[in-house]
């Protein structure tokens, strides 16, 4: 079983739609969680960190359920510019060293 | 402020050759990590360096090595290149310290390596 798994995608949605991405991780000894987005042939860019209490940044909402080892990302009112691959990331490191494990990514295409 | 920079941007090598990739972190960041990203997959962790010490190593063969310099820049070396080493090599820097708890990683644009 892979350490971090994501919805296989791709997701093709119309502008204005709400879309949700799911991610599960296998190792409960995880320290921190993130969503990154990656545009085609570009580097990953941080979208948001994910906290147990849930957090929101504009149209984006991230949730973490440590008991179920599950992370989600909700995008409301999708824009064409949201088209990208969304990467779920789990950090298994600690204060000594980091160990970022990326999921395979879920590709989103927002259609006009 | 300059972000993470990497050089070269593209590289073509043949099997059996050796390659050195370079990375300069964001000013003030002491932690540098290296990742390999094959087309269609997420980045795979290779190494993390902090204060010139190796702090983490992924599941890569000994052909892969790295080091960090006193100015916190870093090099990734790959020996005896194989066709399967063709990938995007990403460097990320982080303000991570042993006490800060700040974990966010910021990625450079990557070096695209093609092995023929």
Keywords:
heterodimer, A: 112 residues, mainly beta, 6-stranded mixed β-sheet, 5-stranded antiparallel β-sheet, 11 strands, B: 116 residues, 7-stranded mixed β-sheet, 4-stranded antiparallel β-sheet, globular
Describe the structure.
The complex is a heterodimer of chains A (about 110) and B (about 120). Helices cover about 0% and strands about 55% of the residues of chain A. Chain A contains no helices and 11 strands. By secondary structure, chain B is mainly β. Helix content of chain B is about 0%, strand content about 50%. In chain B, the strands form 2 sheets. In chain B, strands 2, 4, 5, 6, 9, 10 and 11 form a 7-stranded mixed beta sheet that branches. A 4-stranded antiparallel beta sheet of chain B has the order 1-3-8-7, with no helix packed on it. The model of chain B has no long low-confidence stretch (mean pLDDT about 95).
Spans of chain B of 5+ residues with little confidence (pLDDT < 50)? none
Helix content of chain B: under 10%
Mean pLDDT across all amino acids of chain A: 91
Beta strand % of chain B: over 45%
N-to-C CA distance of chain B:
37 Å
Count of helical stretches of chain B: 0
Biggest β-sheet of chain B: count, sense, barrel? Answer: 7 strands, mixed
Q: Which runs of chain A of at least 5 residues are low in confidence (pLDDT < 50)?
A: none
Number of strands of chain A: 11
Largest beta-sheet characterization of chain A: 6 strands, mixed
- Overall radius of gyration of chain B: 14 Å
Greatest interface by residues involved: A-B, 24 and 29 residues
Oligomer: heterodimer
Question: What is the H/E string of chain B?
Answer: EEEEEEEEEEE
Helices and strands, with pairings:
The complex is a heterodimer of chains A (112) and B (116).
Chain A (H helix, E strand, L loop, with lengths): L3 E3 L4 E4 L4 E7 L6 E7 L5 E7 L4 E3 L2 E6 L4 E6 L8 E8 L8 E3 L3 E6 L1
Parallel strand pairs in A: 2-11
Antiparallel strand pairs in A: 1-3, 3-8, 4-5, 4-9, 6-7, 7-8, 9-10, 9-11
Chain B lengths: L4 E3 L2 E4 L5 E6 L6 E7 L6 E7 L2 E5 L6 E5 L5 E5 L8 E8 L11 E2 L3 E5 L1
């Amino acid at each position: 079983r892979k350490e971090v798994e994501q919805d296989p995608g791709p997701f093709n949605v119309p502008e204005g739609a709400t879309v949700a991405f799911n991610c599960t991780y296998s190792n409960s000894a995880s320290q921190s969680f993130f969503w990154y987005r990656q545009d085609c042939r570009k580097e990953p860019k941080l979208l948001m960190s994910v906290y147990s209490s849930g957090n929101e940044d504009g149209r984006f909402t991230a949730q973490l359920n440590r008991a179920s080892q599950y992370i989600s990302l909700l995008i409301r009112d999708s824009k064409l510019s949201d088209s990208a691959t969304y990467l779920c990331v789990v950090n298994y490191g600690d204060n000594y060293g980091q160990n970022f494990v990326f999921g395979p990514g879920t590709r989103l295409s927002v259609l006009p | 402020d300059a972000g993470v920079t990497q050089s070269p941007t593209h590289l073509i090598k043949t099997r059996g050759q050796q390659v050195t990739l370079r990375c300069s972190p964001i000013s003030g960041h002491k932690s540098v990590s290296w990742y390999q990203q094959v087309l269609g997959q997420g980045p795979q962790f290779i190494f993390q360096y902090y204060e010139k010490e190796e702090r983490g190593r992924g599941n890569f063969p000994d052909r892969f090595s790295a080091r960090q310099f006193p100015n916190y820049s870093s090099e990734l070396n790959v020996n005896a290149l194989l066709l399967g080493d063709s990938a995007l090599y990403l460097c990320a820097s982080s303000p991570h310290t042993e006490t800060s708890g700040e974990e966010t990683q910021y990625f450079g644009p990557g070096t695209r390596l093609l092995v023929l």
